[in-house]
Specification:
Layout: H1 9-19, H2 35-40, H3 44-62, H4 67-70, H5 74-87, H6 89-94
Length: 98
């Protein structure tokens, strides 16, 4: 992956949370197993953290407000996929989006 300098700041925040702080320089094999605790924990604390950090992004993407950066780089697009496919599941478990 390329340097996070060319990635939208919100996309970088999503990638750092989901893939680890080393996402921009890591190879797939380098991702720590600890990251799977974020992916699969289902703990209320993890859900609350995701909701507090990304609820606005989820609302914005649903309203089409993130279109300006979603396709501007492969990393931005990946962040959008993670946001819509993975992070959207957590708040839905707590309070479904209308």
């Amino acid at each position: 992956m390329t340097s996070s300098g060319s990635v939208h700041p919100r996309a970088a925040a999503i990638l750092e949370f989901w893939l680890s702080e080393k996402w921009s320089s890591a190879k797939w094999d380098d991702f720590p197993r600890a990251q799977s605790k974020v992916w699969f924990s289902g703990k209320p604390e993890t859900d609350a953290s995701i909701r507090s950090k990304f609820a606005q992004d989820l609302e914005d993407i649903a309203a089409g407000k993130l279109d300006s950066w979603l396709l501007s780089s492969p990393q931005d697009t990946l962040a959008g996929v993670i946001l819509m496919d993975q992070l959207a599941r957590i708040p839905a478990r707590l309070c479904p989006f209308q």
